[in-house]
C-alpha cells in the first residue's frame, strides 16, 4: 500500500508532489479508501474531506474509539514517507472551508473537483490517538535508535505579513521616493535569520513563502505577502524571539518606506505528550526488541493538533540524513517495519484495554511481571 | 483614439492592465488597426506581432520612410498614457519568439491566441524615427516646461539571477544546514539598495521581480529567480556599481550557503541622440509656442532601441507628480496637445525634407530667416 501511495504524484526525483485536494491527492485518497474497504472497514468522508475507516472490533456501537492516523498530502516535491507512512486516517490539519489558495480556489471547490467533499459526520472523539511518522531530523540516526518516543513539541509563532508600498518605474523614480514592498520583505527575511543566530540550536526561523506584486522586472513592487515562522523549545526564548520578529516587521516597513498592511500571528504552545502513552510506546518498543529514544518534535504533527482532545502518542522512525520536505527523503525498510510492529502492538494493547493508555500499560506490565 | 485605447484593459483605479499579447492588448491592437485603416494607411503585422501603418505620401514606392511610434502594451496596473500616447506603430522592444513568460507560454503562442502572429515583412528601415512619450519623472514639471527634448539615455546593467539551494523542513532542519535560496535573494536585494545609496541621484537600483520555489510556508526555498537593474548616467559609476552587484550576488550565495545557478547580464550603454533631431524638435517646440527643456531619459524607450539603426528623436511631455508604471499616471490634456503639435510639425518638416533631419532643420531655419 505504501508503494501504491508513493505512485500517486510520483516525481522523477523519487519523491511525491501531492498537495491537498489536487488530482494526485485524489488518487492517493482512492488508494486509501479501496485499501480500507478491502480490509473490511466502514469508510467515511467528512465535510472538509477527512477520510475515516472504522473497524468495529467490539460488539457494541458505543465502544471507545482508538484512532491511528496521519496525512496523505505532501509538500511540493516532498518525500514519499512524510505522512503516508502513518496513514490510516486523514486527520484535520487544514484550514477552514473558506480558506483559498494563491489562485483564489477554496478548499471546498478543490475538494468538489476531486469528488472528496463529503457530508459524513466524523467518528466520535477517540479514547486515544497514535501516529507513526518519520523523524525529519537526525536524533535517532545519531543515537543509533530505531524508535523515537516523542515527549514534547517545540513551540512556534507563525506570522503572515503583508507589506504595502507603491508601484513606480524602476528607472526614473528617484530612490528616496520609492516605496518598495520587496525591499521591506528582504530586510525582514535577513533580520529573521539573525534572530535564529542569536540562540543557536534553540530557535529556528524561516520564511518559506513570499508572493510579490506585480512582479515585473521594471516595476517597483507595491505589495509582498510572506509567511514567517519562529520555533523554539523554550517558552521564554520563544516569547523573546517573537517580540524581536514583531520589531523586525515594523523596522523593515519603516526602512523601506512602506506600510504593514496586515499581520496575523498564530501561536503553537510547547506541550508535553501524555506520559502514559509515551511509556506504553516505550514498552512496546522494548517488546519488539528495538532501541528507543525519547525526543522532541520540532515540526507539528497530527498527534500534536489532537492533544487538546484526547491522549495522543507520536512514534518516530529514522529519516536517513534527516532529509525532509524533499524528494530525497528516505527511511529504511527495516525501520519502517519496526515502526509498524511497535504501532501494531500499542494499538492492540489499547484495543484490549478499552482505549485507556494507563490500563494498556498496566496490563502489559502485569503480563510481563 | 487615446480614450478608446485607455478602455482596453481599463482598471478600476483609472489605469490599464494590458500586458503584451493578452486579450486586452489584442483589443488595443484592434483599435489601433481600425484607426490606421480608417485613416487610409496600409497596415502590416510582422512575425513577432509588430504592427505598422504605412502612409504613402510620396508618389514613389522607394521614398525614404519617416517612422513615428511607441508601444501599446502596459505595465501590470500601469498608466493609460505610458506608450499609448505616442502610438502610431508598435516597435520591437520584446524578446525573441522563443522567450516564455512565467507560465511557460511562448510569445508566438500568446500572439497566436490573440490572432496577431503575422507573417508580413516590416517596412524598410526609416530615414528617421520620432517618439512622443510621457516623461515619467518630474524634470519638466519642476522647470515649468511643456516639451522635453531628450538628448541622452541613462545606461543600465540588468541581471537575471538564479540561486539554487535545497528544500528542507522549516522546523527540524538545523539552521547551519539550511541552504535557503530566498535568504540569498534577500541579502542581494538589501545590498542592491545600498549600492544606490552610495551614489545618490546617480545610481538607481531595483529588484522588481522575484519568483520563489516551491513557495510553501514550511519549506525552506530551494530556488529563487530575480531580476536586478542598475542604472546610471555616468559610465564609470555604472561600471563600478555593476561590479559591486556582481560581488553582492556571489556574497549573498556564500552567506546563505547556496549556489549561483545562473546569471545573465544585459547592458544598455549611455548614448546621445542625434543633435540634428534634438535641434529640429526644439525648433518645432518654439514654433508651437512651447517652453522646452533638454534632459536625459532614465528609462529605455523605443527611440533608444532604434538608435543604432537610424536617427531618432524622443519628445517628452510632463507626467503629473512623475507618477509612472502606476494606474495614477496622468498628463494634462493641454500638454498632450502640445506634444502632438510638436510631433506633427517635426514629422511634417521631415516628410518635406526626404526624411533627413539635417535638411528639415535647414529648411525651417531658411524659412524663419
From TrEMBL, chains A, B:
InterPro entries to which the protein is assigned, alphabetical: Amidase_Cbmase, Bact_exopeptidase_dim_dom
GO molecular function: hydrolase activity, acting on carbon-nitrogen (but not peptide) bonds, in linear amidines
Coiled coil: none
Keywords: Hydrolase
TM ranges: none
Keyword Hydrolase: yes
Taxonomy, superkingdom: Bacteria
Family classification: Belongs to the peptidase M20 family.
This protein's name: Zn-dependent hydrolase
Top-level taxonomy: Bacteria, Pseudomonadati, Pseudomonadota, Alphaproteobacteria, Hyphomicrobiales
